[in-house]
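User: For my dataset I need records formatted as: sequence, then structure tokens, nothing else. Please produce one.
Assistant:
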Amino acid sequence: MSQHDLRQREEIVIAARAFARLGYMYGFGHVSVRTEDGLLITPTRPHFLHQQPTDLLHCNSSGSVQSGVASNRPIEVFLHLGIYKSRSDVHAICRTHAPASSAIQSIASVPPIRHGFGGITETIAVLDETDLIHKPEMGTRAGESLGSSDALILRGNGVLTVGSTLGQAAARMWSLEERCTFDRLTPDKKISFSRKELEARKHWYDAESDRIWAWLQHVGAF
């Protein structure tokens, strides 16, 4: 295993551990990164807090496990594969049950951008299905539902964010939960950023995303 591959595996495990420590991932949820022939993804066992880089599964584009314990393959591997197939710009996915974000059940319930980092995850889509994504065709529909958005709400089944890098996908997950939590804490204040205000704040989002990812790596450190 090259140093690059090892570091990539370490970052996946660190991201999953950070989200587990924050209460976004329990026994469910997964982090993945695109590979040339498929993906690397966190397994169902051991628990996220105990996973090591060597525990990760390497699956090909059909979902077959190429390395790792095949019985630990997540049911929703086809969710990740479907999104990678539909979005060539996506190289990482964070899939969690972050509580405030998971409470969103429709486009109408997506909170406006009106505080801090919420606009880092600017565009949000909703998949209007409650079944687990356990077949390739279901993964295809999920990718279609995501479209060009930064995040996808799986109605009744958590949320995922995507990114061109794992750091971006992870920062978007944290920012989405911050946006939704702020909305729940201040339900009577629905004034959103104007387009001009959002554009002014966007100027800082790349730097803030880097800082969020650096902090998440600290939270999830070995």
